[in-house]
Amino acid sequence: MEKLRTAMEDLIQTKMPDSDWDFFQSKLIYKEFPKKHRLLDAGQTERYLSFTLKGIIRFFIPNPESETTVFFAFDGWFTSVYDSFVTQRPSYYAAEILEPTAMLRISYADLQEVYAKTSVGNLIGRKASETLFVLKTQREISLVNLTAEQRYLQLLKEQPQYIQQIPQKHLASYIGITPQALSRIKNRTATSKD
């Protein structure tokens, strides 16, 4: 719980009053999920905003021929299929667990109550929305402005501890290339480091 409180206070750049934290904390649900668990299927509505204590979550657009990975969430991140969560409408995305994951979750209805009954609730909601928006925008910009190799190197720089844990087919899909092309990039970048 302290990890989440610290993350929230970092997010809003101020100390949370104990009464607000106690109320917020009372609404949290702790959940653990095994590897390969499907958190959400396309067509379902996202009911939770979560904070990942440990693990990796993959968000993707399912397609019978080839899935497109759009995002990964790691330890210490707020995570959700956020457009579905905010609108309470069915999601275009699916979400699955790539590594055993532990989360603290709050339901949509409970979060609305936190917004209404705490002094910092709306600030937390706004800052979390802004953070998720920035991540989404950075992803879109990288797809337009960076080569596949640059996208791989950026992910390697930002999350090196996870690269080995994410299956190559999902990394390739996220970068926008085939697994074979990713193998060539990995070999080329490993050779250039030597």
TrEMBL record:
Keywords, comma-separated and alphabetical: Kinase, Transferase
UniProt KW Transferase keyword: yes
InterPro entries according to UniProt: cNMP-bd_dom_sf, RmlC-like_jellyroll
Listed GO MF terms: kinase activity
Name assigned to this protein: cAMP-binding domain of CRP or a regulatory subunit of cAMP-dependent protein kinases
Organism, as annotated: Sphingobacterium lactis
Source organism phylogeny: Bacteria, Pseudomonadati, Bacteroidota, Sphingobacteriia, Sphingobacteriales
